[in-house]
Amino acid sequence: MSYTYYTFGGKVPGPFVRVRVGDTVEVTFTNNAKNSMYHSVDFHSATGPGGGGAVTQAAPGETKVFSFKALAPGLFVYHCATPLAAQHITNGQYGLMLVEPEGGLPKVDREFYVMQGEMYTAAPYNTPGRQSLDMQKLLDERPEYFVFNGSTTALTEDYPLKAKVGETVRLFFGVGGPNVISTFHVIGEVFDTVYDQASLSSPLTGTQSAITGPGSASIVEMKLDYPGKYMLVDHALSRAARGLVGHLMVEGKEDASIFHTQTPVTNSGGH
Ligand SMILES: [Cu+2]
Q1: Which strand (E) or helix (H) includes residue 139?
Q2: Does 214 map to a domain?
Q3: d(CA 182, CA 197)
Q4: Residue 75 and residue 133 in contact, taking contact as beta carbons nearer than 8 Å
Q5: Interval between CA 148 and ligand 1 midpoint (Å)
Q6: Was 260 annotated as part of a binding site?
Q7: d(C-alpha 231, C-alpha 240), whole Å
C-alpha cells in the first residue's frame, strides 16, 4: 500500500536531534512552498509557549525562527502542532530530541532510533493501493495500522536492527501516536536498564517492557548475550498483526549456559 505522509525533512520519524543540557537550540522552520497546509513544530524539550508550536505556524513558503534553552536532560518528542494536531501526527510529523546530560550518556556499542505510530486508513488493514485518512477512525481512535518508523516493513525487510553477542545496545524509543500507549517489549530479551518516561534520574533495572505513552519516550538498554532474531513489539500483540513488528538480528556464538535446546530454532518470535 502507499500513503501520502506529511514529514519533517522527508522521513518518518523526523530527524533525530541531539543536544546537550544548557544548549540554546535555534530553530529555523520552513514550510515547503509546494505544500498546501500550514505546519509547525512543538518541542517537548522546550520551555515556553506551546514548545514553539504557536510561533512556528508557517504557511507554505514561510519560514519561522525561534530559540529555546534545553533546561532538562532526557529524551523528548517533537511534533507538528497545527490543528488538527492528531491528523498531522498520524500523518508522520513526529520525532525525538535527545538532551544529553553533562558528560553524556554512558557509552554503549550501538544506538537505535525507533518510534511507534498509528495509521487510520479508510480501507481495512492490508488493502492494496493508495490509501486515504479516515477522520472518523482517527477521532474514534481506531487505527488500521500500527507501525515502527513509519511503515510495516521499516525494521523488518528494509532496515532490521543488527548487533553482535556481547554488545550493549540502546534504543531511543518514542511514541508519536497520536493516541495509543505502547507496552514496548523485545521478545526473548530482558531490558537491563529502562529510563522510564526517558527520565535520566533513576532508571529501572530488569524489566520486560517499557511502557510509553503517546507523545512520550523511553530509553532502553540491553546487553546481548545470545544470538538470534529478536522481535520488537508492543505487547498489546494484536498490533503485531496490524504491522507493528521490528527485528533485532544478533550474530555471535551460542552460550548453552544461557539458553539450551535440542530443537532447531526456526522462528524466535512465534510469529
Ligand atoms: Cu503539520
Answers
A1: helix 135-140
A2: yes
A3: 12
A4: no
A5: 20
A6: no
A7: 10
- Considering the domain architecture, whether residues 14 and 115 belong to the same structural domain is answered as no
Residue 105 in any domain: the answer is no
CA distance 147 to 227: 25
Query: Per residue in 113-136, pLDDT tens?
Result: 999 999 999 999 999 999 999 999
Q: Is 86 in the same domain as 154?
A: no
Residue 235 annotated as binding? yes
**Same structural domain for residues 71 and 117?**
no
- What is the CA(66)–ligand 1 centre distance, in A? 17
Residues 88 and 143 placed together within one structural domain of the fold: no
C-alpha span between 18 and 76 (Å, rounded) = 10
The pTM for the full model equals 0.96
Average pLDDT of span 63-80 = 98
pLDDT in tens, 139-177: 999 999 999 999 999 999 999 999 999 999 999 999 999
- DSSP bridge partners of 168: 223
**With 60 as the cut, is the pLDDT of residue 271 above it?**
no
Does 39 show up as a binding residue in the annotation?
Answer: yes
CA distance 188 to 36: 45
Count CB-CB contacts under 10 A for residue 29: 18
Residues 204 and 76 in one domain: no
For 123-144, give one letter per residue: b (16+ CB within 10 A) or e: eeeeeeeebeebeebbeeeebb
Q: Is residue 269 part of a domain?
A: no
